[in-house]
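Data follows
____________
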Amino acid sequence: NTLARNFSISMKPSKRLTVCLLLFACCAAFGQKAIKSKSFKFGNVDPKEFATTVSGQDSAASAVVLFDVGSGSFEFKPNGRLMYVFDRHTRFKILNKEGYSYGNLELPFYQTGGTGTSLRNMEAATYNLGEDGKMVVSTIDKDAKFTERTDKNSTIRKFALPNVKEGSIIEYKY
């Protein structure tokens, strides 16, 4: 009690505020819980996903997002420059013909001065149930990838998945 009283009396109000803020910041920083996100493996489609339907307000939906996860981080390139890396993994269930457009992905790219957006490790597939109830996988062909220049620094990379139809599950990972 005496120590607390002496400590409190000898500190100026500005120092007391600074100490309180530092203690609060330390408590807040160490008090955070790590969020464990669910991970999804590309191509690991649960047959139950083919039974996904919609009801209520979304009953007129053309597709259902089964999941859409992404993460961003910064990495240093070998030349010492800082690079932002974004990873995305998404899966949709196509419900009707209006949902076919989800089988077409467009990614914008920007380049200037020798640096810009790039694409590494693109995976994409369409999953359908065959007549025998077995899953049929159709992967993206090289012929289904297009690049369109929109101006001197911008392009759009387009990808068209094969065999998209009602009931298909489509998946992208990049």
